[in-house]
């Protein structure tokens, strides 16, 4: 089998793990990243400059950059002065986004500059806010949603944000689409805006959902595997395969879709990239 073309979709931390897992195992690898972050350095730059949130894009690009000065510089966080709290990569992206309005052009150019072994694309071409419907009412903003519980669904403001053509083209050309792991609503589903969901629904690629190792204190408190998968399906992603660690209890309703693997290493709370990569490639190869 030729090396597959893969698109991975998510937020900064979980998506970076998938990209690390697959970076040396694919013919072409693209990360489609949420730009809805409104906290920390990303939130400050977004509010001050009116740009898409740069942080998750930076983190994923650093993962695809060979070890060395370039990757270290992207992740270097200033500790003093007016730049305190900002990663250098965020500041560089902010400068580029002020000079060039198209974030795809910016990310492709920066990828060339740092020698990235794959492509990182923003899920939307414009800033976007998450809006969650919860049992306690409506909550707006990624940070606020992440601190909420009893979430029924999320939507976006603007309701149908512009999706770059490059994102749709990458999804259309992919052999496999990987969604997750990560914070369910604020990372995994945050980039699945209507245009992205429609592109996934139209593809013939294998769609794989990588389940979290556990629920989260606020956002998905009390969720089991069924709750996670049902939320993904409810938001327009119907996986062909659900990948989870052998420690996760698999409900009968999902037995025909779930494949279990040993996915953790020394830290049982974090996916091991090598084990995750081997699992994903085996599923993709099986078609």
Give the termini separation.
Answer: 10 Å
Bin the helical content: 25-40%
Q: What name does the CATH topology carry?
A: Rossmann fold
CATH architecture title: 3-Layer(aba) Sandwich
Following the backbone from N to C, one meets helices and strands in this order, namely: EHEHHHHHEEEHEHEHHEHEEH
- Name of the CATH superfamily: CofD-like domains
- Write down the domain tally: 1
At the first level of CATH, what is the class?
Answer: Alpha Beta
What Rg, in angstroms, do the CA atoms define? Answer: 18 Å
Largest sheet: 7 strands, parallel
Q: What proportion strand? A: 15-25%
Mean pLDDT: 94
Low-confidence segments, given as residue ranges, are: none
Contiguous helical run count: 12
Number of strands: 10
What would the principal axes of the Cα set say about the shape?
globular
How is the largest sheet built, in terms of strand order? Answer: 3-2-1-7-8-9-10
Strand and helix map with partners:
Blueprint (H helix, E strand, L loop, with lengths): L4 E6 L1 H11 L5 E6 L6 H10 L5 H10 L4 H7 L12 H12 L3 H12 L4 E4 L6 E6 L2 E4 L1 H5 L4 E7 L7 H9 L2 E4 L4 H5 L5 H9 L3 E5 L14 H10 L6 E5 L12 E4 L11 H14 L1
Parallel strand pairs: 1-2, 1-7, 2-3, 7-8, 8-9, 9-10
Antiparallel strand pairs: 4-5, 4-6
Helix pairs in contact: 1-3, 1-12, 2-5, 3-4, 8-10
Keywords:
alpha/beta, 7-stranded parallel beta sheet, 287 residues
Describe the structure.
With 287 residues, the protein is of the alpha/beta class. The chain has one domain: Rossmann fold. Helix content is 40%, strand content 18%. The chain is built from 12 helices and 10 strands. It has helices at residues 12-22, 40-49, 55-64, 69-75, 88-99, 103-114, 142-146, 165-173, 184-188, 194-202, 225-234, 273-286, and strands spanning 5-10, 28-33, 119-122, 129-134, 137-140, 151-157, 176-179, 206-210, 241-245, 258-261. The strands form 2 sheets. It has a 7-stranded parallel β-sheet, sandwiched between helices. Strand 4 and strand 5 (137-140) form a beta hairpin. The protein starts with a strand and ends with a helix. The mean pLDDT is 94.
